[in-house]
Design goal:
mainly alpha, FANCI_S3
Length: 1295
């Protein structure tokens, strides 16, 4: 039978074949097909024969074909056939599908849909046919029955796809079904429907099935819907990461069901590779990715920026076309994230509105951690990002040579945080990836060497951290480090010191590196440049400190300086003590050659000797003998001698104390001679020349500083060894008198000559440790045995003021540079201990003897001791928060003198800070209760500044902060002092506390009313009621002090509102994509309400200010700028509601009220204020014009000021007009007439005066008439004869 079909099929005509097939029953035909297919007897030929004998033009043939198709689909799906046979059958069915009638195609397609819906697919092989059937169906133009109606082929195909995507897909066939849609021609709407269906199925698949499905999705995205595909993939993995992290942080039992972390990261890595590969083939996909992530920045960045999307971006950065875009996007995202966090951190109003989201820095560091799972494609991007952040946001050099950031100060600004993030990325990447380590070290060293003129402290810190982590690993980079040593002679001194401190651990484990460094330093010792020689000294001293000799004091006996403690390798495991000793003595021998060089080089050497002694005590004899030869530098000698007496001498034999006795005798002799000498002996009396313009004056200045230094060194030495001896203290006082006489002469000469020494404090040679001990002895030592000797020093008020002044100088130096002069000047632990001691003394002195009591006694020149103590306290509180944030609790604990021995550990920082705050509050209240004549404005300002510093230590959510805010509000309401600086300080404190508790807009409104009441109205005939909310606002403080403070704070509130509106716009763009739409709507409504209420209250505040007769100057300028800003933000809000109207509906009533308020209470007053500003400026110009003959410069200055102050007026008018323009658009969209509240004004940046215009027009008409008459006369005269021309000329002359 089958042979007959095959033989008939070979004939030219198909008539006999048709007749034969009609005779066969359906079962016989299917049996033949099954027999051939199962046995593999080339069923293709049989199928061709059947199709040839079943033409679609005949109904019987068409039906036969349909039955064959159905049966063949079942055969292919059954799984009983060989792969080649199934493929052959499927191929033939595909070829013949387009010839099937529409009804047959519909039936076949419905069959497929039913199979998928019922989940009865066996192997999915037959699905290859479905795209051809759907494509063929779409080409049918005739109407096909569907339900009770009819649809054409294209519509039917759309309906089938809709039904298919609405059905439940069996998990194992999801990939095949997705692949199938690639071959189906889809409209945009159909494609989106398919993509949404597949994205919903991602969460239902096993992890290992997701990469192939994503691959199919990416192929499908070539048809369109690229953004939706990328968005869905990113959102899915963002949610996966979030769930995974929550489970890891949750209960231990959950770990049993958690997806293994490694498996998830491997899947993510594979998918990132798929996407990057797809972007390489389809640039549009890359563009859509960048567009999607950039759009996400405008709204809720956490929906688009997540660890997965960051890793994806870093991988895409390997494609050159997108590299720059990717890093620009990441840079702006990081900076925006830090700025948002800073804004949230400083505003309780925003914290209550916007939920805290995870910071982008946490996400990036998570990417670094995840990259350990074979994410090699991400690693290079991480390294580039790290260096880009450090290069872009590192410390910058500003005027004066200072840098914008000290390495010891914690990161505060967004730029500093971004730079710190870059360093953390590189350090963590270095720890995880061995392959990339060498490149990181090389790039860091390249920047240290090549960017030496710029601040590079951040790179040196990174290098130090890298070396600490793996000093042995970095031996592989020794050639690069050695190469960097060759540039030491050309680098600035601070760079050399930082670099050598960083590489110390490497020198301990690599002898070749150490030898290379010594060679370089020896060459630098005799270089032409002074800085190179100083670098050599610094390098040798650092080596002496760190290559210890066995037998030296332990680090517990002598605290190590920062940087030098960063050695974690035991040197004695590699080099014995004999080798180290020989090495150190060799270095000392090299350093002795410096003793004949310039003063700067010698000074550095002497200052370094003390630190070397403490770290390497076995070198004491060599160093002390060196100093004995060079005894003219007393400061170093006395520090080293004092340390030697305390630490080494008890352990040494007496026979080795000869040099010590010699040094002590020498210092004693110098002390006696200095006391007996007069200033004339040094040729430094009052008649001496101290001018900086002459060589004699410069020499005398240098001598004077040397004599002052010697006096200070001897004061410290004699006090230290005196052991509270009355005679020694008398010598100390005599030395101080010598110091004081010379110091007074220098001040007097500097004041007269206006030399460079004006306002330049002479550097004190006293050590911070001694200053601390001296203050304790002067003010806090109550021992009976010391009373007699200390009374000698206490009898001199000048000496006590001097001691406090030096303490103040040391604190100021620490505040500005992060270190102090003298021993332990870079040891922050020792500095902190001394700082605590000094603070306790200053605090006790100020609280025990207030300024008022001191001033009522003896009147003296300069500041009182109490005021100096208060200034010192102000600086210390600021410095401790800047340099010792982790030790705040320890610092406050040290200040609590009352219960020093009975401290409870559970007392927190807020409680301790509150105790100190109350002391200063009492002092301020007592000061304010004084008579006006006794009021000290400087002291009051210092107290307010201290209260501001201490208030930063309070927990924002604590009741203590609310109490302090209430106290500050009370002070502002009850005190009416006319001191502008005190008022400014108190207002700053008020606002800084207020923003931590709630929004200050109500306070701004009250203050604006007070300012209006005090300064009066623009219209002088109107008498303004004085509300007196705050007594602090009076005629002298209202403008400019309080007014500028109010406007500055209003500007900050406007920034917050602007930020909220931007966030609202972002939510609006993402609202339809969110699964939590109801929550989004609720959050949006809350944000809208808050923004409108803030703007409404600010409008009332500006309503008062804009009617106030403000004096010309900064207040007017600032108010005009703020008005422009509020109109710009109102315009932004109107634009937001335009978008809302396009998507959902109308505007809320509160927005309508805000527009009404702006139209009635602000815009008309703005135009009146502009006229007022122009009038007062015209008056100032006319006044200046009257004095023009006297002073031309006065006119020029007045005109320049007027030009500067009128500049904001056109900007304000433009902002108002833009606001009104978009209000018109919003009125049309919302069907609400918002313009009924706005009254258009004729006042613009140019104005037409009607009277002047009429006069000008009349003059123009008169001129035209005269000209016309003249022309007529000339024309008549020209018509006369030539003889009569002469008289005509005469007549014209008469005219």
């Amino acid at each position: 039978m089958d042979q007959k079909i095959l033989s008939l099929a070979t004939e030219k005509t198909a008539e006999k074949l048709q007749e034969f097939l009609q005779c066969l029953k359906d079962d016989e035909l299917t049996g033949l097909l099954q027999k051939h297919a199962v046995k593999g007897k080339s069923p293709g030929a049989l199928l061709k024969g059947i199709f040839k004998g079943s033409p679609c033009s005949e109904e019987a043939g068409s039906l036969r074909r349909l039955k064959v198709y159905k049966y063949c689909i079942q055969l292919v799906e059954s799984g009983d056939l060989h792969r080649e046979v199934a493929s052959e059958i499927t191929g033939l069915l595909m070829l013949e599908a387009h010839s099937l009638p529409g009804s047959s195609l519909v039936e076949l397609a419905n069959g497929f849909v039913d199979v998928v819906r019922e989940g009865s697919l066996v192997n999915g092989k037959s699905l290859e046919l479905l795209p051809i059937i759907l494509t063929a169906l779409a080409t049918k133009k005739e109407n096909l029955a569907y339900g009770k109606g009819e649809l054409n082929g294209e519509e039917y195909k759309k309906q089938l796809i809709n039904t298919l995507c609405s059905s439940r897909w069996d998990q194992q066939f999801v990939i095949q079904l997705t692949s199938m849609f690639r071959d189906v021609p889809l409209s945009i709407e159909e494609l989106e429907f398919v993509v949404e269906k597949v994205l919903r199925l991602l969460s239902k698949l096993d992890l290992q099935e997701i990469p192939p499905l994503v691959y199919q999705l990416l192929l499908l995205s070539s048809k369109g819907s690229r953004t939706k595909v990328l968005e869905g993939i990113i959102a899915f993995f963002s949610q996966m990461d979030k769930s995974h992290n929550e489970e890891q942080c949750g209960d231990d039992l959950l770990d049993l069901v958690t997806v293994p972390s490694g498996e998830l990261r491997h899947v993510e890595g594979t998918i990132i590779l798929h996407i990057v590969f797809a972007i390489k083939l389809d640039r549009d996909l890359g563009r859509e990715l960048m567009k999607h992530l950039k759009a996400g920045q405008q709204g809720d960045a956490n929906k688009t920026i997540c660890p997965f999307s960051i890793a994806l971006l870093l991988s895409v950065a390997r494609i050159q076309r997108f590299e720059e875009q990717v890093f620009d996007l990441l840079k702006t995202s990081i900076l925006k994230s830090f700025r948002d966090l800073q804004l949230l951190h400083t505003s309780k109003f925003l914290q209550n509105l916007v939920p805290q989201k995870s910071c982008i820095s946490t996400m990036i560091l998570e990417v670094v951690k995840n990259s350990v799972h074979s994410w090699d494609h991400v690693t290079q991007g991480l390294v580039e990002l790290g260096f880009i952040l450090m290069d872009s946001y590192g410390p910058k050099k500003i005027l004066g040579g200072k840098t914008t950031e000290a390495s010891l100060v914690p990161s505060k600004t967004p730029s500093q945080q971004a730079c710190r993030l870059g360093a953390n990325i590189l350090l963590e990447t270095f720890k995880i990836h061995e392959m990339i380590r060498k490149e990181i070290v090389e790039q860091v060293l390249n920047r240290v060497v090549s960017k030496a003129s710029s601040p590079i402290s951040h790179f040196l810190d990174l290098l130090s951290n890298i070396i600490i982590y793996a000093p042995l690993v970095l031996q592989s980079c020794s050639s690069k480090v050695t190469e960097a040593f060759d540039y030491l002679s050309f680098l600035p001194l601070h760079t050399v010191q930082g670099l050598l401190k960083a590489v110390q651990p490497l020198l301990k484990v690599s002898m070749s590196m150490r030898d290379s460094l010594i060679l370089v330093l020896r060459k630098a010792m005799f270089a032409n440049h002074l800085d190179a020689r100083k670098s050599a000294v610094a390098g040798f001293l650092l080596l002496l400190k760190n290559f210890k000799i066995l037998g030296s004091l332990s680090s517990s006996q002598c605290s190590q300086s920062i940087g030098a403690t960063q050695v974690q390798v035991d040197v004695h495991s590699r080099y014995n003590s004999v080798a180290n000793e020989a090495f150190c003595l060799e270095i000392l021998d090299s350093l002795r050659r410096c003793l004949g060089q310039q003063a700067d080089v010698r000074l550095m050497l002497y200052e370094g000797f003390y630190d070397v002694l403490r770290r390497n005590s076995q070198l004491a004899n060599s160093i002390m003998h060196t100093l004995l030869i060079q005894a003219h530098l007393l400061c170093c000698i006395q520090h080293c001698l004092a340390w030697y007496r305390n630490k080494v001498m008890p352990e040494e034999e007496e026979e080795e104390e000869g040099f010590q006795q010699d040094l002590e005798d020498m210092l004693e002799s110098i002390t006696i001679r200095m006391i007996k000498s007069e200033l004339e002996d040094f040729e430094l009396d009052k008649s001496a020349d101290f001018s900086q313009a002459t060589s004699v004056g410069i020499k005398n200045n240098i001598y004077a500083l040397l004599v002052i230094g010697v006096c200070e060194v001897l004061i410290e030495y004699n006090f230290t060894i005196g052991n509270f001896s009355k005679n020694k203290f008398e010598e100390v006082l005599s030395l101080f008198k010598c110091y004081n006489r010379l110091s007074d002469i220098l001040k007097e000469k500097a004041g007269k000559g206006k030399s460079t020494m004006v306002n330049k404090t002479v550097r004190s040679f006293l050590s911070m440790k001694f200053v601390s001990a001296l203050l304790v002895a002067l003010f806090r030592d109550s021992s009976q045995s010391h009373e007699e000797s200390l009374s000698v020093l206490r009898s001199s008020n000048e000496f006590m003021r001097y001691a406090v002044n030096v303490a103040l100088q040391k604190v100021q130096q620490l505040e500005e540079t992060g270190q102090v002069d003298g021993p332990d000047g870079q040891n922050l632990d020792r500095i902190f201990q001394n700082l605590c001691e000094i603070t306790r003394v200053l605090l006790w002195r100020y609280t025990s003897i207030p300024t008022s009591v001191e001033e009522s006694g003896k009147k003296e020149k300069g500041k009182t001791i109490s005021l100096l103590c208060l200034e010192g306290l102000q600086r210390i509180f600021h410095t401790v928060q800047q340099f010792f944030p982790s030790k705040i609790h320890q610092f406050l604990r040290a200040l609590d003198i009352t219960n020093e021995d009975e401290e409870e550990e559970d007392v927190n920082i807020t409680q301790r800070a509150t105790f100190q705050i109350r002391q200063f509050q009492r002092s301020l209240v007592n000061l304010l209760s004084c008579q006006d004549d006794d009021f000290n404005g400087k002291e009051a300002l210092l107290l307010v500044t201290i209260l501001s510093s201490l208030s930063k230590l309070l927990d924002p959510s604590s009741p203590q902060l609310m109490q302090m805010l209430s106290w500050t509000v009370k002070m502002c309401k009850e005190n009416s002092l006319e001191d502008a600086s005190f008022c400014k300080g108190l207002m700053n404190l008020l606002f800084s506390l207020h923003v931590l508790c709630k929004s200050p807009v109500s306070v701004l409104r009250d203050l604006s009313q007070d300012i209006h009441g005090q300064l009066g109205d623009l219209d002088q005939d109107i008498e303004v009621e004085k509300p007196n909310h705050f007594a602090m606002v009076n005629l002298k403080t209202a403008a400019p002090t309080v007014c500028l403070q109010v406007l500055s704070q209003a500007e900050k509130v406007l920034e917050e509102v602007d930020w909220l509106i931007t966030k609202l716009k972002g939510h609006l763009g993402q609202e339809t994509l969110s699964e939590e739409a109801s929550q989004e709507v609720s959050l949006n409504q809350t944000l809208e309400k808050a923004a409108i209420l803030q703007l409404g209250t600010l409008l009332t505040a500006f309503h008062e200010l804009v009617q106030t007769a403000l004096p010309s100057g900064s207040c007017v300028d600032s108010l005009l700028r703020n008005l422009s800003k509020i109109y710009t933000i109102l315009t932004a809000l109107v634009k937001y509601y335009l978008q809302v109207c396009r998507t959902s509906g109308g505007i809320p009533n509160r927005m309508e009220k805000l527009v009404k308020l702006s139209g009635s209470h602000l815009t008309p007053q703005c135009y009146a204020f502009i006229s007022y500003v122009q009038n007062i400026q015209n008056e100032s110009l006319s006044v200046a014009g009257e004095k023009k003959k006297e002073k031309t410069a006065a006119v020029t200055t007045a005109m320049a000021r007027v030009l500067r102050e009128t500049k904001p007026i056109p900007n304000l008018i433009f902002a108002i007009e833009q606001y009104e323009k978009f209000l018109i658009h919003l009125s049309k969209k919302s069907k609400v007439n918002l313009m009924q509240y706005m009254k258009l004004s004729t006042s613009r940046d140019f104005r037409i005066n009607g009277d002047i215009l009429d006069t000008a027009l009349q003059e123009q008409e008169t001129d035209e008439e005269n000209e016309r008459m003249t022309d007529q006369t000339v024309a008549s005269e020209q018509r006369k004869d030539d003889d009569s021309q002469e008289p005509a000329k005469k007549k014209r002359k008469k005219k």
